[in-house]
Design a protein that fits this description.
24 helices; three-stranded mixed beta sheet; Clc chloride channel; mainly alpha; CBS-domain
């Protein structure tokens, strides 16, 4: 009986795996289920972060930052310092246990086919909640995205979905996380498509959107459906002359975003130059945070609570200008000193401050331009966040969904698009891709370049090669070329190792010249021996072929045993790449083959024809 039940369970499990690999409706159901789990996880993380802040500051600084000073002036100063010290010591022991860098959603989809570790994601969650809890000027977005993507990746690997579906599931987790965190399903959807999936694939759109909607519904059922940042009044129509100011906001916002990313890098470099222990760096950053918070307590945490006051014009111009500099410094110091977290909500808050300040200045120096503070604050929110995060459509939708204020939509679009274009032109990175660049990884997005990097030399290996001993005379070598189809001969040393390459044109020219010093095959070898192994990446092979004068390269057993076992041809390498790119395109389009489309007449034929 037990054996029969085990056999039945195994058959059901295999059936589910087949569904996961072939049935798109199963993937949609899976997206809905994971969206509900991720939405609940976001709520739990928010509650945990608020609980830690209540324990440290006596109040949730993300909701009521100014009230932290009412529980003692010393808390905004000492909590970041002592909390940073405790955080640094904890991270020190974590890194001894797990020294490798933890893979995030973008890296997983770009290089690893969507494979992430959920256990590693739990570590990131703990580090981020601790950072936000002690006042670091970062947000929970990196944590919730890591949680959602890590969970969906683990589930997809467990069910054994195909590679493209696993990447989509990682996007589903990110979409549900951002949607639930900001009460913005469209922004969550486009965040996943722009940053995590790496494109607007037809097959990914529906699952990602469903996950975002379900995640939002779960979050709203617990936290309520009110906009995250309530605008007290609707902005009036925007005058045509104001669009010029919005363009200026976009340009200046890109400068602000680039500055924050650069300053964070400068702080990291200073720490290395001082040779300060890793565990002490967060405490040093906490000193800067604490001193800044004595004057501007709103810089602590992500800034969600203070952004309501910014959008609704509760700060004067001097305070706005001071907060812009203080928040930019606090965010850069937090990231540079090793606190874990994201700059998503921090950059939105910084953008609201920046846009509001520009609006006040425009009213002072451009009296002929009609002034509406709310419009300028919303444009600044989207523009600065775009410069830092690098997802323009996401930021446009985020501002509109979280504020429910649509009259300034065109102004937000103008500022966001200008900031995106200028940042790409002057800097070329978002915050996430900039971090990859600093680690020596040339990643500009989450497109599946790992799939191309996984291609190996053995896939195009040609074992039909002409191997010739180095002592072979030229008459014999030229006759071998005439008898066979090979145009290149691989010359071998007496011990059978690879010595170099000679093509037929070189051999015939040397034979005609009759130079006695060039009477053997080995004497014609002049270039250093370039070779590959069967396990090397095809990308390395292509780079090596491009750097030599030959379009054929030898493949040897190993570096330690350089005996020729075959060769590769440039044409075969390029063809293999094109085949893989076409396969990826077909998967994105939902198995539509644009090279095999039947004519309309064929569709009209009857089945019996």
């Amino acid at each position: 009986m037990l054996h029969a039940q085990a056999v039945w369970m195994e058959s059901r499990w295999r059936f589910l795996r087949r569904l996961a690999r072939k049935d798109e409706l199963f993937l949609l159901a899976l997206a809905a289920a994971t969206g509900s789990v991720v939405g609940g996880g976001v709520v739990v993380q928010k509650d945990l972060a608020s609980l830690v802040q209540h324990l440290t500051f006596g109040v949730s600084i993300d909701h009521q930052p100014a009230l932290a000073t009412l529980y003692g002036w010393w808390r905004p100063l000492l909590v970041p310092i002592l909390g940073g010290l405790a955080y640094g010591i904890g991270v020190h022991f974590i890194r001894r246990w797990h020294p490798q860098e933890i893979i995030d959603a973008i890296e997983a989809n770009a290089l690893h086919g969507g494979r992430m570790s959920f256990a590693d994601s739990l570590v990131i969650i703990a580090m981020t909640i601790a950072s936000v809890g002690v006042g670091a000027s970062v947000g929970l977005e990196a944590s919730v995205v890591q949680m959602g993507s890590g969970f969906c990746s683990w589930l997809g690997q467990y069910i054994q979905v195909k590679r493209s579906s696993l990447r989509t599931m990682v996007g589903c987790g990110a979409a549900a996380a951002i949607a639930a965190a900001f009460n913005a399903p469209l922004a969550g959807t486009f965040y996943a498509l722009e940053l995590v999936v790496g494109g607007y694939a037809v097959t990914a759109l529906a699952p990602v959107l469903i996950a975002a909607v379900v995640g939002t519904v779960v979050s709203r059922s617990i936290l309520g459906s009110a906009p995250l940042w309530a605008v007290a009044r609707s902005a009036p129509g925007v005058a045509n002359t104001e669009y010029l100011v919005f363009v200026a906001i976009g340009v200046l916002a890109s400068v602000m975003g680039i500055l924050v990313m650069r300053v964070a890098t400068v702080f990291e470099a200073l720490y290395r130059r001082w040779s300060a222990p890793h565990w002490l760096r967060p405490a040093i950053g906490g000193c800067v945070l604490g001193l800044t918070a004595l004057f501007f307590p709103s810089v602590l945490g992500s800034g969600h609570g203070a952004l309501d006051a910014v959008v609704n014009q509760q700060f004067t111009l001097p305070i706005l200008i001071g907060l812009v500099g203080a928040k930019a410094l606090a965010s850069a110091v937090s990231i540079g000193s090793g606190f874990r977290g994201g700059l998503f909500s921090a950059s939105v808050f910084l953008g609201g401050l920046f846009g509001g300040a520009v609006g006040w200045l425009a009213a002072l120096f451009l009296p002929g331009v009609p002034f509406d503070y709310t419009a300028y604050a919303l444009v600044g929110m989207g523009a600065v966040a775009t410069a830092v995060v690098g997802a323009p459509l996401t930021m446009i939708l985020l501002v509109l969904e979280t504020t429910s204020n649509y009259p300034v939509a065109i102004g937000v679009i103008v500022g966001v698009l200008v900031a995106s274009a200028v940042t790409r032109r002057w800097f070329g990175y978002s915050f996430s891709t900039w971090r990859f660049h600093l680690r020596g990884m040339d990643l500009r997005g989450s497109s599946d370049i790992g799939r191309l990097r996984d291609l190996a030399v053995r896939e195009v290996l040609d074992r039909n090669v002409l191997r010739v001993p180095a002592a072979t005379d030229l008459d014999t070598l030229c006759s071998l070329f005439l008898l066979g189809t090979a145009k290149v001969a691989f010359i071998e040393n007496p011990d059978g190792t690879f010595a170099g390459m000679v093509d037929s044109a070189e051999a015939n020219a040397a034979l005609i010249e009759g130079d006695p010093e060039r009477g053997t095959a080995g004497s014609l070898v002049s270039d250093p021996p370039h070779f590959l192994t069967a396990d090397e990446a095809l990308l390395s092979a292509l780079e090596m072929v491009e750097s030599t004068r030959y379009e054929t390269l030898p493949v040897v057993v190993s570096v330690e045993e350089p005996r020729v076992i075959g060769c590769i041809h440039k044409a075969d390498v390029l063809q293999r790449y094109f085949e893989e790119l076409d396969r990826m395109r077909v998967e994105d389009l939902g198995d539509v083959d644009i090279f095999n489309i039947s004519s309309p007449q064929e569709h009209k034929k009857s089945p019996r024809a």
